[in-house]
Design a protein that fits this description.
The protein is an alpha+beta fold. 43% of the residues lie in helices and 23% in strands. It has 7 helices and 9 strands. The strands form 3 sheets. The chain has a 4-stranded antiparallel β-sheet with strand order 1-6-3-4. The chain has a 3-stranded antiparallel β-sheet with strand order 5-2-7. It has a two-stranded antiparallel ribbon with strand order 8-9. α4 packs across α6 and α5 crosses α6.
Length: 186
């Protein structure tokens, strides 16, 4: 376990190797995986920028990881005095926040079933995906994914078979996207 909710915001973590999985906890206690990353990553950056305690419940190492823990003041001083380090941190932030923005675009004012419809319309490759992957992509707990899958299956748009969710009727899915408010999210 690397970071837990409420961890002091005076520290920042830089993961240079290994795989981590980030989990989030809802108010009702449901825990779900938000993302898995193998790339170099900075943890505690939101706390650094906002000055508030960690909002994520935990970041868990999936294998052997190399993680450096830095005091916020030391980290900020390093940014000020080392241009190459500052540039690399800014690049990491850009990649990380671009990914976050891409994921959050599905959630603005849409129900989970609508988010899932849009996700399948834009990402379906024909091989199907697991509910866990949908949970990670749509940033929703698996039990909510189950309800959305049930709702969309009832409409004949998707199906759940052999542990994977896939598009059942591509034409109906496209029609639903293009004749509803979902077209505004394309």
């Amino acid at each position: 376990m690397i970071v837990m909710q409420g961890f002091p915001e005076e520290d920042i973590f830089i993961k240079t190797s290994g795989t981590i999985k980030v989990f989030y906890c809802l108010a009702d206690g449901a825990i779900y995986s938000v993302t898995t990353t193998k790339e170099i990553d900075i943890l505690g950056d939101a706390e650094l920028l906002t000055g508030h305690a960690a909002s994520l419940n935990m970041v868990e190492a999936q294998d052997t990881c190399e993680v450096y823990r830095l005091n916020k003041e030391l980290f900020l001083q390093w940014l000020k005095t080392d241009a190459a380090f500052c540039f690399e941190v800014l690049r990491l932030f850009a990649v990380k926040y671009d990914e976050s923005a891409r994921r959050w675009k599905y959630g603005r004012g849409l129900t989970l079933a609508e988010q899932m419809t849009l996700w399948f319309y834009q990402n379906d490759r024909g091989e199907g995906v697991t509910k866990q992957r949908l949970s990670e992509e749509l940033m929703a707990p698996v039990r909510s994914i189950n309800r959305a899958v049930r709702d969309l299956s009832g409409l004949g748009l998707i199906c759940f078979q052999d542990g994977k969710v896939s598009v059942q009727d591509r034409e109906a899915l496209a029609k639903r996207v293009h004749t509803s408010r979902l077209k505004n999210y394309l």
